[in-house]
Amino acid sequence: MYSDIFREVVDIMHSDYAGYKDKQGWDNPKVYEDKIRQLENTNELTPNRFTELVQDYLLDFKDPHMFFIVQKSETQQLYDNGFKVRRHEDKLFVTSTGNESRLKVGDAIVELDNVPVLALVEKHKRELMESKAERESWRDIIKKYNLAKVVDRTGKEQIIELKKYPKEGYVANHSITRIDEDTLCMTLTDFFNPDPLNQLIEKHKKELSKTVNLIIDVRINNGGSDATFQNLTPYLFPTNPIILDYSDYQMKFNCTERNASSQINSLKEDLNQITDPTIQNMIKQFIQMWEKHRGSGFVAFESQNMEAEIVGLEYPKNIIILADVYCGSAGDIFVNLCKQSPKVTVVGRATMGMNDYANLTTITWNNQLKFMYPTSRLDQLDHRGALEEPGIKPDIYIPWAPEHIEKDIDMETAMNILQRV
After folding, report:
1. Calpha distance 265→60 (Å, rounded)
2. 74, 102, 291, 322 — which has fewest CB within 10 A?
3. Would you call 211 helix, strand, or coil by DSSP?
């Protein structure tokens, strides 16, 4: 069974994945196929072990915008280490703790299984895929180790045996809080569905129409669809007309039979979950495009419009966007859109930069294993050289440092900017 699934994944990566032409010959599937068959023959292959092998195979494509995961079920529990870290120089600093009570925020991991952090960086360069420490993701790497040498804030060292805990579910946050008389802070952790954001805007419409300053925190934003923040857009721009440039997002869709079937099915499911009539109409148009071009290979959908005029609102007058590497996909697009407004200043760090290959579709096996991969490719890849750093860059860059654990330096910077306006 697992060998069949893996062969299908390889087939997807060689024909349906939006980057398959660009990355021809990058992978070595036979090594993984042999390993999977060997483990199958000895009954040693579990869903989690198979997932690890597929994820390792997918690293060859150097694309952070695809995911092969085990779905949680009655018989399948998902696990993690119960804490999160961020690297600064030669230490992994604990930035949050969930189920792992032995660690405290601010503790620093200096070794895993007696290997120093900088040696681990070199060893796991393929998985990290980043040139800056602050952009690295260590979540899956830490899972591979058993012992951590930890130094607390007083300098005391201890060795802890790393444990696996049931993975905590994602809790969305779409909220507005008042910071002072002139300033509101809006937090948006995803753009999955327009309804929560539209409800938030409607609830705070009176406040938004009067506030001088608005801070929008998308430092953690799990993406979704750029159509989701459509009703927020007028607040981001001034009253004089501005021509928005979407040329960076001109793309072609790989309209294979598999991609078309998968996208049409998932889009029809979205229609049943979304109540916004404008978004529903956009989804219907998207379905029509997939149906029209089914089996045609790479196609630019006719509905793409690379320029649009927007007339915004008088208030808020000043907007700060807080951004970070944990903001990606539709979050990337949101920050890029905001940067076109004279009202907006982006503060923090560059976003994840996931949209070279986008518009993910999902293939599922036995309601247990799920593969999400991109079906669209940006045209600008044909003309763009290698980027020094992916993502949408902030106007004011604040390097991440351990001091961020003690206080919200990004927010302090935002307030200082607003006080000077």
Report:
1. 29
2. 74
3. coil
Confirm if 83 and 96 have CB atoms less than 8 A apart. yes
Which amino acid, one-letter code, is at 403? E
**Nearest by Cα to 228 from 263, 194, 279:** 194
pTM recorded for the entire structure: 0.90
Question: Average pLDDT for consecutive 10-residue bins of the chain (421 residues)?
Answer: 95 98 96 95 91 96 93 72 96 96 97 98 93 93 96 96 91 96 97 94 96 98 92 96 86 97 94 85 92 96 75 96 96 95 97 93 94 95 69 96 97 96 77
| Longest alpha-carbon distance in the chain | 69
- Residue whose structure tokens are 């927007």: 310
Give the C-alpha separation, 322 to 396, whole Å. Answer: 10
94: CB partners within 8 A, 6+ apart: 83, 84, 85, 103, 104, 105, 106, 107, 108, 109
Residue bearing tokens 């753009």: 191
How long is the chain? 421
Cβ neighbours around 340 below 10 Å, total: 15
- Please name which of 196, 191, 200 lies closest in space to residue 222, comparing C-alpha atoms: 191
d(CA 231, CA 198): 7
Find out whether 346 and 219 touch, Cβ atoms under 8 Å.
no
Terminal Cα-to-Cα distance of the chain (whole angstroms):
62
